[in-house]
Give the backbone structure.
Amino acid sequence: MTAEMILALTIWAEAQGEPADGKAAVASVIWNRAEARRAKERMNDIRPCLTAVCLAPRQFSCWNSGSLFGARPSGEAWAECLLLARAMLGGAFRPSTEADHYHAKSARPYWASAMPVVAVIGGHVFYKEV
């Protein structure tokens, strides 16, 4: 599976029902985590970091079961997610938040109380690890 498909599927599975700014915020979390990894590992190319961040165990729940490997999404939400992935891989993407974590408003993860909220967009709350 290509990096473009992994990125687009991650954004789609995590935020397909969100408005465009919600999808961009989820993409920003992926970008911000990948950028931190790229800097830490002193890599020039962020592409492998973007893929690694998406597929890291227990980071994006959409990959936990492995069911996305056979997914064939379509429609307007998928088109938006594919455009975001292409922008990320093409160097045109700029994060919309500084967030590196998020969760659905309905969730209560153990780590959330230790991080400042940087945005609430659609059905998600976004955080920046300190």
